[in-house]
Structures are given as C-alpha cells and as structure tokens.
Specification:
D-amino Acid Aminotransferase, Chain A, domain 1; single chain; Rossmann fold; five-stranded parallel beta sheet; alpha+beta; 3 domains; 15 helices
Length: 486
C-alpha cells in the first residue's frame, strides 16, 4: 500500500532520566535534533545536557510528564515534528497518540486504536483469540458490587482456584492479585478495583485462570506501515518482585520448536491488531509442559530492550524512528539468530531486605562503574548525584553479554563486584547472591523464584574495604583536605 514518507528533523522526547538519554543518543546519531522536556525537580538532570534544547513544562513532579496538552505545547514551541514517548508516563496512552495525530506531529509508536485495543486486556484477549493465538481462560469486565462478585465466583467454580484478579487497563505489575478461595475473592475484588481506580483512573477489572509458577516470556516485534512484521527473538523476565521485572535474559532457554511457535503467534497477533512500530507480545509458559498462552502486549519500547539490541545488533529506537518516517523494514533474518546470552539487571537505589524500599533523598558519595568486554551501561547518575524522591529509584541498567550462559554469569558477577556505589543501599549485593545460586546458574527459574529462594535475602551487608577507601578518597577530593592527616 502507498505510505507517505515523512522526513523527521526534530524529535521531542516526552520522558526523563536514562530512557530520555538513550533515545537522545540515537536521535543524534541519525543527525536529527533532540528536544528534552523537564519538570522543575529534574532541572539539574544530566540527560538534558545531551539534548539540543530543553523546555520546562511545569513544577509538579510526575504530573507534567503526564500532561498531554503541555507536551504538545512543548513540541510546537520547539518546532518538533515528532515525539518519542519512551516507556512509562504517556507511552501507552491512546489519547496522547491521537493528540499528536491531530496536531500534525508524528507519534513514534503505534496508532491510537491499536494502543486502545491492546491497553484493554479483555479486548486484547479477544483479538488474539481471533488470530488463533493461545489465550488463558478469562472473563469479560466484571460488573460492580455484588453482581461482579457473583460473576467472579461462577468463573472460579468452573475453572478452579487460584485465579488472578487483573486491571483491564493495568500495567507495571499494578492491579494484580492472586485469589486462593471464595473468602479472599470477597475481600480482594473491591480492593483491586480501588487500586485500579487510583492507579489508572479506570476501575474495570476482570478475572483470569491462574497459571501456577509459570515462566514469563516476551517476544520483541517490529512492524512497518507496509505490512511487514518481524520478531527480534525472545526474552525471559520470570524473576520478578510484585509482578515487576528484576532481571531480563535473552534469548529464553526453551526448545526451538516452542520458540518458533511463540514467534509465529506474536507475529499473527500483531498482524491481527494492525500493529505498527516496536512492541512486545508477552506470554506465560507452563514450566513443566512448555504450553504457552498470550498474556498482554506492550505497545511501547521496553525497559529491557537492551538485551535484544546486544544480541541482534539492531538499534530498536533507530528502527522506531525509521518506521515512523514510513521506511520499509529491511532487517535480514540472519540478524535475528541470537548468538550467545545477554542479561540486564536494574541497579536500583533500593533496600532488597526491606521489601525493596526506595532510598530516595540519599546522595551517591562514590560512584565507580565497571567496564570491559560485554558490558553496557544505560544511566544518568554520577558521583554526587542525589537520588530523587519524586521519581523511580532506577539508577542504571547494566546489560551483560557472553558467549554462553556460564560466561555471562561470570561476567555479570565480575561487573557487579567492580560496581562501587557508596551512599544509598542498592540491589547490587542481591544480584551477587543470585549469581551464586545453583538454580539460577542452571537456568531453572520461574515467576515464583524469589518466593522459593528466600535465602537470597540473607546476603552480607558489610561495606567492602575498597568501598571504604573510595569513600575516603572522594571526601579528600571534595574537601581538598585529608581528614586523617592530623
């Protein structure tokens, strides 16, 4: 079909932090201009230094990045002809995509209706069923009050407990509860509805049969305006806390025929919905039988896209921009054959022993990052950086690549040991404990991994001698005086 070619010259990044910087880098590589936006608490954030211009959109933390009118205003003010939403914030907001379209600004992502359809988990499941993609048994949106409880009870009686209560407009692990019996149903249903209303301004919820201790596998896809849809392999993101991912591994360790079936299902589903741009089709896989079912589709760039990039050599952000301009996908199939293994860990300012409590407000007294073969860092922190209290606790994503799983773990462990952060507690010692855990080393993990390996939280908290020394050196440099010289 005929598709209008639109050459992009200036891109506004409607996001912040590490993902804004990651997008800016590719924009600049393409010889285009990058425009950053920021809320007042982000006024000193390093990502803006790499942009060609930065526009303040307001004072309110986490509010202005969600204000569609202000983002469109900033795009017009800067003369941007395209907007990249990154992940989170407005990235999966159909109204935002539609507002860009109405304003004559290219939205670097899928069309509004696709976002709307895939954002409603009940509608998404129906579309996948039509495409003959395996889906988990589930309900329509439940009615409010006692009627909804009765609908839920009837479904649970038919399919058996446990079941999962889920937000129809959910994401990021919010609005999800496991229900083990009828009494829990009566308690949890109104709580999930209230949580969903608060998180998504939408109180629609539905019920789904619970797959016990599955693996969580996702398939990265790219689709252009010309009807071409390809996959870029698989990722295993089974190791999670509160339904939020901690480690992502590529490719997933599954039999070749199972992966091929999942690739085929992902592409068929993307075609059925009329997908355009980068997206991820997510599946739950039975750990014993390898039977798989569609779970959801993320209509945006994923946090963990870096592991796919490291194994395929494909810059996914670059492809997003080219697709938005109307280009034809031109990635030969041999690029998709992932060689080796890659893993991404999220270095967060959190205390894993205290239910991953954020360490907002603390300062990085020492920050020394690792390097060497197969090490990629995506972050914006530095020595002296203050962990924000208004935003998430992610400091840097570290992606490690090796020839095989054994080398990847060894390289990950070496890099974590060489990562010095003094100030906030971090997830680093927790990941080091995982590196030594036998099941992880053997590739045996599913979504219940942290629940069945609670010993991982017993890691030692002693400050390493090299960290103490680095702290002293940093203090000498900061004060220009050696406090131990007298």
């Amino acid at each position: 079909m005929a598709v209008e070619q639109k050459k992009i010259k200036r891109i506004l990044i409607a996001n912040r932090g590490e993902i804004a910087l990651r997008i800016i880098r590719t924009v600049k590589e393409l010889g285009l201009e990058a425009i950053a936006v920021y809320e007042k608490p982000d006024s000193e954030s390093p990502y803006m230094r790499s942009a060609d211009d930065a526009i303040m959109i307001g004072d309110r933390p986490r509010k202005e990045y969600l204000d569609i009118e202000k983002i469109i205003w900033a795009a017009r003010k800067s003369g941007s002809d395209a907007i990249h939403p990154g992940y989170g914030f407005l990235s999966e907001n159909a109204d935002f995509s539609a507002a860009c379209e109405k304003a004559g600004i290219i939205f670097i992502g899928p069309p509004p209706q696709v976002i709307r359809d895939m954002g409603d988990k009940v509608v998404a499941r129906k579309i996948m069923e039509k495409a003959k993609v395996p889906t988990i048994p589930g309900t329509e949106n439940l009615a409010s009050g006692d009627t909804g409880i009765e609908q839920a009870k009837l479904f649970a009686d038919k399919h058996g407990y446990p079941v999962m209560l889920k937000a129809s407009a959910g994401g990021g692990g919010r609005g999800i509860r496991k229900v083990k019996n009828e009494e829990e149903m009566k308690i949890q249903l109104p709580l999930v509805r209230a949580e969903t209303r608060s998180a998504f301004n939408d109180d629609r919820i539905y019920l789904e049969k619970c797959v016990e201790s599955p693996r969580h596998i996702e398939i990265q896809i790219l689709a252009d305006h010309h009807g071409n849809v390809i996959h870029l392999g698989s990722r295993d993101c089974s190791i999670q806390r509160r339904h939020q991912k901690l480690l992502e591994i590529a490719p997933a360790d599954l039999p070749a025929n199972i992966l091929e079936a999942m690739y085929d299902a992902a592409i068929k589903g993307a075609r059925e919905v009329g997908y355009v741009n980068a997206g991820t089709v997510e599946f739950l896989v039975d750990s014993q039988t390898n039977e798989f079912w569609f779970m959801e589709m993320n209509t945006r760039l994923q946090v963990e896209h870096t592991v796919t990039e490291e194994l395929t050599g494909v810059d996914i952000v670059r492809q997003q921009i080219k697709i938005a301009e109307g280009d034809v996908l031109n990635i030969p199939p041999e690029r998709v054959h992932m060689m080796g293994k890659a893993v991404q860990v999220r270095i967060n300012a959190e205390d894993p022993k205290n239910n991953f409590m954020p360490e907002g407000g603390k300062t990085l007294e020492v920050y020394q990052s690792p390097g060497g073969p197969g090490v990629r860092l995506d972050g914006v922190v530095y020595q002296g950086y203050r962990i924000p209290t208004d935003y998430d606790s992610l400091m840097v994503k570290m992606t490690i690549r090796g020839y095989d799983w054994e080398q990847t773990i060894e390289r990950l462990k070496r890099s974590l040991n060489n990562f010095l952060i003094v100030g906030p507690k971090t997830t680093i010692p927790f990941y080091l404990a995982i590196c030594d855990e036998p099941d992880f080393k053997a590739g045996k993990f599913d979504t219940s991994y942290l629940d069945t390996h609670t010993q991982l939280f017993n890691y030692p908290e002693q400050e390493r001698e090299v960290a103490k020394l680095s702290k002293i050196i940093a203090e000498i440099h900061a004060r220009k005086v050696n406090p131990f010289a007298y």
